[in-house]
Amino acid sequence: MKTYQGKSVFGGVAVGNIKLLQNKAPKVEAGHTQDVRREKLRFEAARLKTQAKLKTLYHKTLKELGEAGAAIFEMQSMLLDDPDYLDCAYHLLEEQQMTCEYAIFQAGEYFAKLFGQMESAYLRERASDVRNVASLMAEALAGKWDRHIYTLSQPAIVVADTLTPSEAAQLDKSKVLALVTSRGSVHSHTSILARIIGVPALVGVNMDVGNVPDRALAIVDGEQGVFIVEPDEKTQDTYGRIARRERAALQGLQRLKGQKTVTAQGSRIELLANAGSLADVEAAIQNDAEGIGLFRSEFLYLNRSSYPSEEEQFAVYAQVAQKMKGKKVVIRTADLGADKQAGYFGIQPEANPALGYRGIRLSLDRTEMFRTQLRALLRASHYGNIAVLYPMIVSEQEVDRALALFAQVRKELLEQGIQIGRVEQGIMIETPAAALISDLLTPKVDFFSIGTNDLTQYTLAADRQNPRVEHLYNPGHPAVLRMIQMVVSHAHRVGKRVCICGEAAADLALTKEWVSLGVDGLSVAPPYILPVREAILKALNSPDRTVST
Ligand code: PEP
Ligand code: MG
Fold this sequence. Notes:
- The protein has helices at residues 36-65, 67-79, 83-94, 100-116, 121-142, 165-170, 189-197, 233-253, 278-286, 310-323, 360-365, 367-380, 396-415, 432-436, 438-441, 452-459, 478-493, 511-517, 529-538, and strands at residues 2-5, 7-10, 13-21, 156-160, 176-181, 201-203, 217-221, 226-229, 270-275, 291-296, 328-332, 385-390, 424-429, 447-450, 497-500, 521-524.
- It is an alpha/beta fold and 549 residues long.
- The protein folds into 3 domains: 2-23 and 148-252, Phosphohistidine domain (Glucose Oxidase, domain 1, 3-Layer(bba) Sandwich), CATH 3.50.30; 36-143, Orthogonal Bundle (Enzyme I, Chain A, domain 2), CATH 1.10.274; 257-342 and 350-538, Phosphoenolpyruvate-binding domains (TIM Barrel, Alpha-Beta Barrel).
- Helix 2 crosses helix 5, helix 3 packs across helix 4 (100-116) and helix 4 (100-116) packs antiparallel against helix 5 (121-142).
- The longest helix is centred in the N-terminal third of the chain and has 30 residues, at 36-65.
- Bound molecules: phosphoenolpyruvate (PEP) and magnesium ion.
- Phosphoenolpyruvate binds next to strand 10 and helix 16.
């Protein structure tokens, strides 16, 4: 029996056999040739084939896991059109007369090193994307895709050094019992994936993957961050009992379907789902969500070459509204920019994208794009119960401008005789500025939705994607809680509702906190609906509480 320690990404216990994915990078020979034309043609063929592959992976993942899991392929695909990357590759092919394989490898390494030295943690993480794209191109050249090693014949604990997004996408998610990697951070793609499919997962495990026996029995303890290979009988018994208890608990949660979400003292809390695709909306219905609290509309804008049309957006919003059968559907207007980019946006690289041209800043600057989205949303409102949510607000002026554009679009539609429903308007509170002036913002809108993901990173000055400051990133920090308390108190003073829609809404260790702060709703990823409902049913509220330091 061997026990390893890692960082926990998703809780729960899994017992099963190991499937080892040894994704050793192929050895690339330093090759040169006189036949430059042939190598350029091979490069072009590999590039196009890889782009097609990335598109397939994007759509497969979007369908299975939603936008959060799929966005990475859009980003990788953009690299293959990047003029700097292409200049570099063509220079190596033409001037240095490298073979196609060698040029792909060298160009990949050049850009990976460049990214690896960047100050922003987010950009540093892109080094692995560049290497991933280079190895996909190498596989395209070798014609390897049709016999990929990532098929699971039976349920297994997947163990790897690291899992690239394309490898993860090719796994049959229904057969993954747990994910264990020796590298990666809790914000890496493996981690996002694990949380979406809801399996126990560990990253940064102190093991040498080469020494882990394939097919051996193993245990993953997602709570304690422990990976046990070839457990002895006593350990098997202990974990067997825990796993059975967990299965029973999960089964037991099914009884909560159809129940109202009320605290032990009888306060009603709206329990909604976050969705980033139509597949997520299905999952929300399956898990008995009381509505959609955050529909991230960005997926409609990504992985394409021009803005989505009004008709295209209308079709999606109306479908969501209809599927939810009159339950509330809060659609957030495009929170583009920062890490959500497409080539056609034409946004120059920024030193601090999280503090840059994103969210409402971009929408208020590109009013045609914004008006198109508002028209689609308002038209769809006739088919259900739609509310609109504006992201990344920092000032009263932004809210005023968004509301004015909304009113103008609404008036135009009514003049055209188009039927529209009553649409509430809310804003995301995800910047300290918005929290601090929430008393000035409350009269303007119908509701607030607190984005703890960004509110935490901006309040604590801790990049949400940087593993080095992971220990500082804490939505339960008194500074964040005080912000939330202030927002709730300002909103309640004038009878407005407050929901939390960041990841922290699903953190069961914080459920009591949210209840006692008096929030009116929580919006969580679909697999968390029933566990959070159970936690709320047990939680007592103490409305006059103040946050301690
Ligand atoms: C948030 O910031 O908490 C949020 C819900 O928005 P996103 O995660 O999409 O930035
Ligand atoms: Mg946000």
